[in-house]
Amino acid sequence: MLYVHDGDIFLEKLELPALLDSLIDAKQIAPVLVVFIDAVDRHDDYEPGSPFRTVFTTEIVEMIEARYAIANGRRALLGVSRSTLGAIDTCANDGIRIDACILVAPAVAPLQ
Predict the structure, then answer these.
(1) List of residues 6+ apart from 91 with CB closer than 8 A
(2) Which of 22, 78, 95, 97 is deepest in the core (most CB within 10 A)?
(3) CB of 46 within 8 A of CB of 79?
(4) pLDDT digits (tens, 9 = 90+) for 57-90
């Protein structure tokens, strides 16, 4: 199960479905169920500890996974730019297990 923050960016601009289809066809990855999710406010919703994180982990994931089984509990979360902050926060701090946290162009300042 792959959850994608900033779903519209990955669908429309980055064409993630086509990339995943190519990887699956080439047997580079196993078939995956992808859930594209958009925030209402990218700044507030991806802020650490935001109410969006709670809704994501307690309502969205629960609803999706009640409908679709996940293989061996394998779950990944993908974010781009600002949504990487929400992905890191969710992967590190919430009560659900995330097996892979994928960050594309993280909006995180390097440590000096």
Answers:
(1) 77, 98, 101
(2) 78
(3) yes
(4) 999 999 999 998 776 668 999 999 889 999 999 9
Token pair belonging to 99: 């097996």
Q: Which two tokens stand for residue 19?
A: 């990339």
Name 36's bridge partners: 4
User: What tokens appear for 92 in the block?
Assistant: 């590190």
Ramachandran sector of residue 64 (left: φ over 0; alpha: ψ -120 to 50; beta: rest): alpha
pTM value surpassing 0.85 = yes
Rounded-to-5 percentages of helix, strand, coil across the chain: 45, 15, 40
Rounded CA gap, 89 and 94, in Å? 8
What backbone phi and psi angles, to 5 degrees, belong to 64? -65, -45
